[in-house]
Amino acid sequence: MRARHPFARRTVREGRVAVTADVDNVVTTVTVRGSWGRSLSRDAFLALKKSLGAHPDAVIIDLCDLDDPHAASALTWITARRVADAMDPPVHVVACAPPASVLADRLERLGAAYYLPTYADLTLARAAATTARPHTDQRRLALPPEPDTPSLARNLVTDACAAWRLPGEVLYPARLVMSELAGNAVEHARTPIVVVVLRRDEGLHLVVNDRDPRLPTLLPAPKEPPGDLWNARGQGLRTVQAASAAWGALPTAEGKMVWATIFPS
């Protein structure tokens, strides 16, 4: 057998990270493909940070197509799990990787303190993620793209705050933010939407899901106030940004979800 040259290079596959949110199950999947290296490490870190920022019930890290022969990425996935465990409420993190891979073996041998549940394929990981922590403090409503949709979405926030006895300093900004998110979806996506209100400790997590894959963009602030404030367009996300602790958007299988989190000031 010919010995491998010490400077021979293995084939490097271009790395790619994809994030997909599942609004129905409040689960986000982060898929990492290609050869592990500095660039893919950075992209994976940013994707995980963005996914955890949306505070789903669970995050699935799909490593089935990751080329990592030395398990160099293991610390990244373990760190994500530990960060998620420290959130309030905690986010359940699971992974899937080929059972015979070096990475799966490394994750299994790290011990209880660094334990990351790892499954053989995405189907098993998804089943574990969707059944681990059912979310009971949740309100959801499917709405058409009609003019009164923002009002109905605001009412869902009001009902949730009343049921969970949340204070007005959560209710009023949450109603404002939900109105903006739902109004943007009606105006720009023009598709049926699903609005979701979830309790997050003493605050709320708001989600608006539509079937338009285009992610929203925060426009630069106008240099001069518009002549007619009632007709000013494109500044709704600035209201969301100002009134919420955090906000963002993630692609879904059929479009996108835009979310925002409100906490007492």
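(ticket continues) Second input and output from the same batch:
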Amino acid sequence: MLSNKVSEIMTTNLTKAPVSSTIFEVMEMMVAEDVGRVIITDDDIPVGIFTEKDVLKRVVNAKIEPRKTAIKNVMTAPARAVREETHIVEAFGKMYRGKYRHLLVRGRRGKIVGIVSMRRILNLAVELGQGLNETKTLGDIAAPAIVSIDQSAMIHETIELMNTKSVSAVVLTAAGKPSGIFTERDVLKRVATKEINVKQTPIEQVMTAPVITMPQSALVGDVLVEMSRRDIRNMPVSGDGGELTGIVSMPEILQYAQAFNVDEQVRRTWKEVAEYLDTEDQYTPG
């Protein structure tokens, strides 16, 4: 249940890199191990974390040389952590408020013993939601407007747009119609580690195609299942005529999961988180 402790769902196999590593070495590690984050350590003590978001915001369009620059210059520090007895729903609220997808987990003696991700919570919500009565649809959620750009645009221009709009994905268009999507994951795997000339390469050469969409009438539970099955973080929403009307990210839709309404403790905790969200506007990069 979501009222259980994060220690029950955390990953204990931690991907780490020394603070002396270069940016390129860490990015290669992320691709090789198929992870979206690496814990940066100094003498085996976590001093930061490096994520796909950092690649997007601090590396690709920056005037730095990834093969020569130390990871400490672009990592997010300090690394955020919760205690192992923290409830899963509380950890999700912390991620949602801070707009990040990973939290380190501290053991009773203060040592980092694991990491919990928003994706793991999504998968858990899918498991718990099976068989539950769903009524809320994508149309009931205020999906943010789609940020799009023509597929002929250069990679550099597209990444500038993503950073300006603070989005993790953009929809690519051809003749005004969706032709693909470009995400933080694509930035890492198809651009940063391939050392592509971002100012001379069209975004269509590195986009993910075709665009996977779900209709406004789709139940939240079905959307969560699809995102979990396809291992994606953003779901474009289509209207009755098939046109794209918005895009929902993992944290935006996960908060509506029926799994958050299965027992009183989870309902009470999530209500407190929701009330906090209504009165605060926090943003933490990384």
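Agent notes: Residues 24 and 62 are 14 Å apart (CA to CA). Residues 138-254 form a domain with the CBS-domain fold (CATH 3.10.580.10). Closing as not reproducible unless the customer responds.
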